[in-house]
DNA sequence: CGTCCTCGAGTTCC
DNA sequence: CTCGAGGACG
């Protein structure tokens, strides 16, 4: 629990930084940090103010909407359908089901009763809010939100948008004030950016920026060239007549459609409960990428317009509506500590431990900082506020340090000069720092994990957790001991049953036979990954049927001979040469021999030259066969597979949900084929 | 010696 | 997935 004094300090910082970014974005049309990151800061501020209401000041960003209107446009005030002044306000944000429950509870407390007349749910489009004033069915004026009170008169620009009717149809009222969002479709956004690129001009960051920029163009001709869309989300009014005509929010949508103004009526729902709202939120998230325009959440408001009016305004947002946003693609949090991990190769990797934060639907607490150089590049100190995102929507990464958020208590991080696991000296090797001890406990343990991993011995059911326990209990000391494990020894451990012990021992025995390539890979020799292990195996296959044979075979190569092998240069040769000359490793191979490890003859030769000379790269998920199986098939037919796309690639095989390789292949003009076509190629 | 291709290694969360 | 660096090649 945060005390009031630190809360006050934090609030001051947050306000200063948020205001700076808002000014840059709204007045200078420039993007300092992403909207998601800004939202995260605002959310933290909002929560702190909720906890300490006495710390709320009138200048807090939570207490205002929009920014100052630009000088160039005429400033206009916002009025409703009845000519009454009606501020254009924004919505508060919710990011979780808990936030939504809190919101409804606050509303009901205010109303003094339960609310059960339905919650209208609409998509929350990511564009620019606009008010349209119609008189006698004709578009008279259009305004941006501005600061909520005073907006900008952008009528000339709005008139160029085809999606907005200049003349209403049907049974429209004499005066009608409509609010909605101008948006840019993703397709149109791509088209504009392609054009910008061709002209050598700057690329826009997102559709919302382009939509906003287009509306606030002084030259309407520019706006006209950008085909903007418009979706209305409300009619503004507050008199008895208004409530009679439109008792519910949904009625407004239906009326708007009948007047010829587009809404997302067909995509919205009236939810009877929060549960239904949550379901809608999930459904929309699943469909998000398929929509033609960007959305960043859903808008939930009470369907009963009288209640909506009664709810009034809290701060500068309506009490009876809220934006339930999707979990952001990036967020801000605080680095509380930097841990140092020691890997299989002895490399020391700094890892940031952060205050938990939700990014893309999962809670992030750790992010690798890779190496000391990366920390320096970021300028990161312990205690800093940072922006985290997920590379490829998966791997957490710190993208930016918000140095303006520093309070003076941040600490510099220094790479330890002694290994945190065994205290050996740390030496620098390129950008990496390594523990100098080859028998460092961490290295040993990581080597064991590697030994049983999928590309190596592939012993299922024997993961890091179990290995740790075997090590702790003294059941094993090195990898070779794994093959001598007895069912009884395992079953004797606490929390291990007869059955699970049997399964593990059986699995281990089944894996005693292994291909040469896998065996070489499993040894964890520096610089020898799957590919190099394959090449090395091809070179000596046929002569090797046991670990000891391998030792003999490799000892037959000197440094020069090793380098004659394809893709092996001085560094890799040195690594192999050195490994097989170490007494410890020699003993280890002998021990594996005695434990009954047998090396199979690789049946690696191609059975056909159907695909000879062709290089394949695979991406995404295949339906009928695993990626590993597909690769094997390709190799059998004489083709080659690789992990990265280049102009030497002949085919990119794209399954569902392909990664970044897809775009790269497109850019390089590499032929992209689907699974069906691959199957046709490998059949026959 | 410089430039391009690749491979290896490290990493997170469910 | 991304970065760094090893290796091939001109």
Secondary structure layout plus pairing:
Elements: H1 4-26, H2 35-51, E1 75-77, E2 93-94, H3 97-111, E3 119-125, E4 128-135, E5 138-144, E6 150-152, H4 155-158, E7 175-184, H5 186-198, H6 207-215, H7 220-225, E8 228-235, H8 240-245, H9 249-258, E9 269-271, H10 274-287, E10 295-302, H11 305-311, E11 313-314, E12 317-318, E13 321-325, E14 330-342, E15 348-359, E16 362-368, H12 372-378, E17 385-391, E18 395-401, E19 426-429, E20 432-435, H13 441-452, H14 464-472, H15 487-491, H16 498-510, E21 513-515, H17 516-522, H18 530-540, H19 547-555, H20 559-564, H21 570-580, H22 583-594, E22 598-600, E23 615-619, H23 627-636, E24 640-642, E25 651-654, H24 660-668, E26 671-673, H25 675-682
Helix pairs in contact: 1-2, 17-18
The structure holds a DNA duplex (14 and 10 nucleotides).
Structure notes:
With 684 residues, the protein is an alpha+beta fold. The protein folds into five domains: 4-63, Helix Hairpins (Orthogonal Bundle), CATH 1.10.287; 75-325, D-amino Acid Aminotransferase, Chain A, domain 1 (2-Layer Sandwich); 330-433, Nucleic acid-binding proteins (OB fold (Dihydrolipoamide Acetyltransferase, E2P)), CATH 2.40.50; 441-600, 5' to 3' exonuclease, C-terminal subdomain (DNA polymerase, domain 1, Orthogonal Bundle); 615-682, Rossmann fold. Helix content is 37%, strand content 21%. It has a five-stranded mixed β-sheet. A five-stranded antiparallel β-sheet has the order 16-15-14-17-18. A four-stranded antiparallel β-sheet has the order 5-4-7-8. The chain is elongated and about 95 Å long. Residues 65-70 have low confidence and may be disordered. The structure holds a DNA duplex (14 and 10 nucleotides).
